[in-house]
Structure formats: C-alpha cells, structure tokens
Design brief:
By secondary structure, the chain is mainly alpha-helical. It has a single domain, classed as Globins (Globin-like). It contains eight helices and no strands. Helix 2 (15-31) crosses helix 7 (87-104). The radius of gyration is 15 Å and the shape is globular. Belongs to the truncated hemoglobin family. Group II subfamily. GO terms for molecular function: heme binding; metal ion binding; oxygen binding; oxygen carrier activity.
Length: 130
C-alpha cells in the first residue's frame, strides 16, 4: 500500500501561504534596487502579475489548477518570450524569490526543494545568452 506524500502546496500551507509567498516576492522586487531590471518588465501596478503568479504557483505546487482554468496551459517560455531574459534577469528573479522563500516558508527542506525547482524554471525562461 502506497502512502500519499504531501505535495508542495500542502506542505507550504495551501492558498494562504502561497499567496503570502507571492506577495512577498513582488514586494521585494518592487523595493530592491538590485531587481530593477526585472521590475521594469512589469506594469506599474503589480496586482495582475501577483494574481497570475499566485494562480500559476497554486497548480505548479500541486494545488488547484487556477491558472489553467482561467488562462489555459501556462506556456511559460512562450508567455515570457517578449521579454529579454538573460543571466542577469534570471538571477534577479531568483534573488527576489529566495528572499520571499526565506521570509515566508519556515520549513528549510521545503525551501530547498522549491529553490531547486525555481532554478530549473528560471533557467528555462532564459531567451538571451547574456
């Protein structure tokens, strides 16, 4: 008999904690001068970006597929292709997410697992050699 191992969505604490992670991520991006490169790719008001990332991460972590239900398949690379994403932008995004993870996720093991997964996604988003 196999036991069901909790997924990342369950381990992080569900909707409330995913939302807290996303809110902190965009707060860091908005306030940290080192993240200016990626901040300028976003609209002045970050609410829509925040909502979309929350919906995406909900499903990506194993929770409700909110993004897919509203927008269809994520097609992440295709949706990000209009933006020039190189090593610098990748690193800025990961820096913001790392701070958000440290500030909102108490479980160190979960933070490490999510970081590894986020690095893979961020690498996949790169569309520039620089």
């Amino acid at each position: 008999m196999t036991e069901n191992k909790p997924n990342h969505y369950q381990r992080i604490g569900g909707e409330e904690r995913v939302r807290a992670l996303v809110q902190r991520f965009y707060q860091v991006m908005d306030e940290l001068p080192e993240s200016y490169g990626i901040r300028k790719m976003h609209p002045e008001n970050l609410k829509t970006s925040e909502d979309k990332l929350f919906k995406f991460l909900s499903g990506w972590m194993g929770g409700p597929q909110l993004f897919v239900q509203e927008y269809g398949h994520p097609l992440l690379r295709q949706r990000h292709f209009p933006f020039s994403i190189g090593k610098e932008e990748r690193n800025q995004w990961l820096m913001c997410m790392d701070i958000a993870l440290r500030d909102t996720v108490a479980d160190e093991g979960l933070r490490q697992e999510l970081t590894v997964a986020f690095v893979k996604v961020a690498d996949h988003m790169r569309n520039q050699q620089h």
